[in-house]
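# nightly structure sweep
# worker-07 picked up a monomer target from the shared queue
# config: single-sequence mode, recycle default, output format = structure tokens
# input follows
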Amino acid sequence: MHSSVFLGIATIGEIYVASSLAGIEPNAALLVGFLITVGIYNFDKLADLDADEANYAGRTAFVAAHPKLYAGFSALAIIGALGLSISRGGVYGLGLTLFPGVVAVFYSFPLLPIPSADRLKDIFLVNTAVVALAWAVLVAFVPLAVVAGQSQYVAGAVVAAVWFFVRSAISVEVHNVRDVEGDKENGVATLPTVVGVRRTQLILYAMEVVSLGLLVGAAWLEYVPIWAPIALLPAIVYSVWITYALTGTNRSVERLCTLRDGEGVLMVLGVVVAMSGVVSIPV
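# output follows
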């Protein structure tokens, strides 16, 4: 539950950054993102008790001992998120908030009519892509739904969605390095289990360059504020260091993955500092 709350707080930061890139003032999407993240991640832990035991023995034992607590807490969080999204964003807010939950159901539960894989989690690369897409759509477009999709914000929201898709995909694969032994045991195909950790690092470095190039190009085209690449560069550098440290140091991979989730703190700080500087510039 604590890790889910931590991820919920991280989602608040991501929504704040996405809103800032699009030029949208912080709104109810911040709370919607927190609640839906907590609810979904708790249900995911309940669905994956057997598979997670190899990677998270302590956490899995606690979840298995308190299933009603997890289910009740998760249900309340999701109901709160849906109620708030409807009241502030109407049917669009509802659909966007439901999107990661629907993805999570097909990701975690055996519902696919495919003989080789009955969950999205078991399909190579699709597992990473769907997780990244679910959170990118949530953090970028729920704030837009709250302001009734005003056209002047759409381009920035799209850029934010692509940015967070890439960032989330990088984060997922870094965490997959931590889970590589458990994933091999459970037959889950991820980049580290298929191509190895070293090649995974090289792919992630390339994705970092892509994410920076996206910001530079979008700022040049004036889809996002001119300060965006500079404000978010520290987060990219930090992420590159985490990826390098997976093999370049003797640091615990578990600890590195926890640190990886702190990338959002640097994003928020960078945006806050940049926006303060922009405001203080004489016109």
